[in-house]
Amino acid sequence: xxxxxxxxxxxxxxxxxxxxxxxxxxxxxxxxxxxxxxxxxxxxxxxxxxxxxxxxxxxxxxxxxxxxxxxxxxxxxxxxxxxxxxxxxxxxxxxxxxxxxxxxxxxxxxxxxxxxxxxxxxxxxxxxxxxxxxxxxxxxxxxxxxxxxxxxxxxxxxxxxxxxxxxxxxxxxxxxxxxxxxxxxxxxxxxxxxxxxxxxxxxxxxxxxxxxxxxxxxxxxxxxxxxxxxxxxxxxxxxxxxxxxxxxxxxxxxxxxxxxxxxxxxxxxxxxxxxxxxxxxxxxxxxxxxxxxxxxxxxxxxxxxxxxxxxxxxxxxxxxxxxxxxxxxxxxxxxxxxxxxxxxxxxxxxxxxxxxxxxxxxxxxxxxxxxxxxxxxxxxxxxxxxxxxxxxxxxxxxxxxxxxxxxxxxxxxxxxxxxxxxxxxxxxxxxxxxxxxx
Length: 438
Fold this sequence. Notes:
Elements: H1 2-23, E1 39-40, H2 46-50, E2 78-93, E3 99-117, E4 121-132, E5 135-143, E6 152-174, E7 179-200, E8 208-230, E9 238-246, E10 249-259, E11 266-278, E12 281-291, E13 294-303, E14 309-310, E15 332-341, H3 352-355, E16 357-366, E17 378-389, E18 396-407, E19 414-429
Antiparallel strand pairs: 1-4, 2-3, 2-19, 3-4, 4-6, 5-6, 6-7, 7-8, 8-9, 8-10, 9-12, 10-11, 11-14, 12-13, 13-15, 15-16, 16-17, 17-18, 18-19
């Protein structure tokens, strides 16, 4: 117990020291994070992430899965999980020449859960990222008409940073060995900032910088259910089906436009507010466990983002405030599958390599960003991970690598190749035990 707590404190201090450095990098994502509320994230457990994402039906005693609150009923130990990820994005196409590369790291959230009634009633909390809007893009342009009747070369640089986070908390309850349900209350908040910097080749022209910042927040809720069917095809196997629905939310926000970069920026104009109606998100998953050593999963999700509407209508700030409609957003859906193999199964006396879990996952996604009404953008991703046991019972270290491609170079658009690694530590201990005299 002492070792686990020391390890947790050390990780918190390490991440706390790294976060300020990482936060200064404006460019952890694709140029497509310029639209909507940024690139959407998939909060789930380290196990589910390595298996392609979500894991809506994936029951586990070692992890807390935020994608389905019904799974929180399977709590035996009090658990804390936290992690970080490192990602590189290489982009080509569009109006830029050659290939651009952006690299940065980010905090990957904190999860905390504990049982009120062992494997009956469980409670979970989490602080996780929902979206990221970090990008950098440069375009060279020429003005053919100037007061001096000469051509003028200049460069326009677009920068973006920020995103949304979510604080979630709720419970899961298991009625019996067959069915469980759960619910959570979700608070979304964050700031999205975009900047347009124009610089000129001539020294007598002053550089201009315009910044739009939007503060957003909303309340939502997630409902989930889970079904377990045992001894289906062979003794002691399990077929699991999970479903979860995140209810629609109305993101309210306030936009502020400023000019300049110093701390004493001059405010040019301030919008009193606006709103974006986010759509419902539905997730469905199936997991089959033929034995304690093997797990197979399939997951899907759908969100009708083309129906999202925004009350902010100013054309010149359409990228600074989340906007909806079929001209910029499309229906988003994902399909993923994965396999996990742990040679030792439930045998905790086997060797280190036998108790290590090996995972593979793939996913296909239609992005919710749409450049026009006839074109959709897709992403394909492959993941591989391992879960390392430790000498502390209930504590595991998970490492996951991923590589993917999204977008297209046709129609003067941008294609991204991204790859990276994430690490997460899950600590489990038995708390709230009643002491007994012997």
